[in-house]
Write a structure and sequence with these properties.
CATH architecture of the largest domain in chain A: 3-Layer(aba) Sandwich
CATH topology of the largest domain in chain A: Rossmann fold
Distance between the termini of chain A: 28 Å
Strand content of chain A: 25-35%
CATH class of the largest domain in chain A: Alpha Beta
Shape of chain A: elongated
Structural class of chain B: mainly alpha
CATH superfamily of chain B: MetI-like
Number of helices of chain A: 8
Strand order of the largest sheet of chain A: 6-7-8-3-9-10
Helix content of chain A: 10-25%
Radius of gyration of chain A: 25 Å
Oligomer: heterodimer
Largest sheet of chain A: 6 strands, mixed
Number of strands of chain A: 20
Number of domains of chain A: 2
CATH class of chain B: Mainly Alpha
Number of strands of chain B: 0
């Protein structure tokens, strides 16, 4: 595998604001990489830096082995799909698609033929003579995709392309973008704030916060082995429960400080009396009988979507998800059980994952 | 009665009231004088029948006389130079300035705001200022042109028959610059930055972005600016009395100033009305262009 896009020690400053901090990232040819993080984390800046719409303050950016620092966007041979789609409102779909080809000097007839081909693969054949304002959101999205595809670029850059679509269309477009990527053998970088998009679409996910890469890896690696509390809380929906806890004097039991000191046996010995944060995903907690329960909560809210039931504690700190329905009501006291192998431990101060032999 | 009152407070009556007020205003203060002016151009008007409306019908004799004046074609030529020179200059420099102020630099919008000074100033004041700037022996413009070696001899902007119309045109370009720049800036600001970025990634260089994105997206704004420019230039009057008074020997006289001379210096109101009716036809044409080019604006 060769790296199609390579960033080495990339920094970006806006005046005194340090938007990207020493970013090192290699994106393999043919892979689909998602950049996720909360808004303002630098993911869009990173994408725009790759496109050349922002200049990097220091470091090296390579596309297909060539250094691209200072190369204008039009010479980088990358295509971008914008959140707003940025379709040319005064051009028909056909001219939107063939714009880049015409700029390269392709004849009108050849460009038209190419546009028709791309329209076929993106399902736009009937719409070639419409203007963008006459299209629905999903159709505009397809035109934006087609405009990128027609150029056969070195990389596709997506900047939150699905956030203007309604929920059901978003799920459908997710699959279409991914299958298009596979069919074209393209290299794609996909920015999103929606971790579900990242998890379902990408080969690799890069989690960012405050201009720093917090963790990178395959989607399930991030889910199973989050490197720190931030990644643990960001990946997975509903979000992971965090309970301030400590290790007991013998180093073999985890004490839930916030839940009247109830405790659970650890898989292995840890440093005694250490302050930790216990992270437990809602889907690995279950309502249990008195005999089995590891700790107890007072029920605050019970919500059901039909397929899943969400039980939250009164302090809103703990949420349980289960597929069975429940008779529980607010103010009930209920015991919860968790498999201790499913507990993620993070250092209370650094919030970094505490590495144990179990992983 | 109650229904009429409630219609005025809550319903269609209120809309009709607002429209009605506007219509009364327009008819009384624009419509009637306009028609009166047209009628007058077909009448014999002298000092004795000025105060009555029933005057002898003159047919097209006023028009024939106006056209057969020896200075008629000179004035048409001057009007054309003034109108197209002014619009061209205002538009080109206004567009250039509008593009310049779209660049992000400190105080860009403040400096752009200062340009409005030229628009706020009364035409007579602007005329007086430019009268001094353009003065032959002590004018600043001549001093600068000589200083940078562009001319050797003094240019008598206001008194040389071949230059006089250009002197007024230059002053008018300055006067209308801010208006053009502002309207064009609004049009430019309406173009999403995303489009330029998309075009840049699609491989368009600066000139191609201008010709394939900016210009087509600005089409209705440009149409409106040019049409309004034509109307404002045809009604520009103040600069003429302030700078050249139409002279020397009508060499800088234009239709709107000529109409005023007929009516209020020679007291031949019929001829003045005739000249302004001829101008009306041109303005009407410009208005049609303006309405046509802004017809999409309702949709936003």
């Amino acid at each position: 595998m060769t790296a199609q896009i390579e960033l080495q020690n990339v920094d970006k400053h806006y005046g005194t604001f340090h938007a990207l901090k020493n970013i090192d990232l290699a994106i393999d040819k043919g892979s689909f990489v998602a950049l996720v993080g909360p808004s303002g984390c630098g993911k869009s800046t990173l994408l725009r830096s790759i496109a050349g719409l922002e200049s990097i303050s220091s470091g090296t950016l390579k596309i297909a082995g060539e250094t691209m620092n200072g190369v204008p966007p039009r010479k980088r041979d990358v295509a971008m799909v914008f959140q707003s789609y940025a379709l040319y409102p005064h051009m028909t779909v056909e001219r939107n698609l063939s714009y880049s080809l015409r700029l390269k000097g392709m004849s009108r007839a050849d460009a038209k033929k190419k546009a028709e081909e791309v329209a076929k693969t993106t399902g736009l054949s009937e719409l070639l003579h419409r203007f963008p304002r006459q299209l629905s959101g999903g159709q505009r999205q397809r035109v934006a995709m087609g405009r990128a595809i027609i150029r056969n670029p070195k990389a596709f850059l997506f900047d939150e392309p699905l956030s203007n679509l309604d929920a059901s269309l978003r799920v459908q477009m997710r699959k279409e973008i991914r299958s298009l990527h596979d069919r074209l053998g393209a290299t794609s970088v996909y920015v999103t704030h929606d971790q579900i998009e990242a998890m379902t679409m990408a080969d690799y996910v890069v989690v960012m916060r405050n201009g720093v890469i917090e963790q990178r890896g395959r989607p399930l690696e991030l889910y199973d082995f989050p490197a720190n509390k931030f990644v643990a809380g960001f990946i997975g929906s509903p979000a992971m429960n965090f309970i301030a806890s400590s290790i007991d004097a013998s180093g073999t039991r985890l004490i839930f400080d916030e839940y009247s000191g109830e405790s659970i046996a650890l898989e292995q010995r840890l440093e005694p009396n250490r302050k930790v944060i216990a992270g437990i995903r809602p889907e690995f907690l279950r309502v249990a009988s008195e005999a089995e329960a590891n700790f107890h909560i007072e029920v605050g809210t019970v919500e059901s979507t039909g397929s899943a039931t969400y039980i939250s504690s009164q302090d809103q700190m703990v949420t349980v998800v289960q597929s069975e329905r429940t008779e529980l009501k607010p103010n009930d006291r209920v015991g919860l059980k968790v498999d201790s192998a499913r507990i993620h431990l993070f250092d209370a101060k650094t919030e970094a994952r505490i590495v144990t032999d179990a992983g | 009665m109650g229904r009429i009152v409630s219609s005025i407070t809550d319903g269609k009556g209120f809309d009709l009231l607002l429209v009605g007020l506007t219509m009364v205003f327009l008819l009384a203060l624009a419509g009637v004088p306009l028609v009166y002016n047209v009628v007058m151009s077909f009448q014999q008007v002298d000092m004795f029948n000025l105060s009555t409306f029933s005057r002898p019908f003159a047919g097209f004799s006023n028009y024939v006389e106006v056209v057969s004046q020896p200075e008629f074609w000179l004035i048409i030529r001057n009007t054309a130079i003034f109108v197209f020179g002014s619009i061209g200059g205002q538009f080109v420099f206004g567009f250039a300035l509008a593009l310049f102020f779209m660049l992000k630099f400190p105080f860009a919008s403040t400096i752009r705001g200062l340009f409005l000074v030229s628009w706020v100033m009364p035409g007579l004041v602007v005329g007086a200022l430019w009268g001094w700037i353009l003065a032959g022996d002590f004018g600043v413009l001549n001093a600068i042109l000589k200083g940078i070696g562009l001319i050797d001899n003094t240019m008598f902007w206001k008194s040389d028959p071949s230059l006089a119309i250009w002197a007024v045109t230059i002053a008018n370009i300055w006067l209308g610059l801010a208006f053009n720049m502002m309207l064009l800036s609004v049009g430019l600001a309406g173009i999403s930055q995303d489009l330029y970025e998309a075009a840049e990634l699609d491989g368009a260089n600066g000139f191609q972005r201008f010709s394939t994105i900016t210009l087509p997206m600005m089409r209705s704004t440009i149409g409106a600016v040019l049409a309004l420019g034509l109307i404002y230039t045809l009604q520009q009057f103040d600069l003429f009395p302030a700078i050249t008074e139409g002279g020397p020997a009508n060499s800088s006289n234009v239709a709107q100033y000529w109409a005023w001379q007929w009516s209020f210096q020679l007291f031949d109101f019929a001829k003045g009305a005739t000249v302004s009716v001829m101008m009306l036809v041109f303005v009407l044409f410009a208005s049609l262009v303006y309405v046509w080019s802004t017809r999409h604006e309702v949709r936003g």
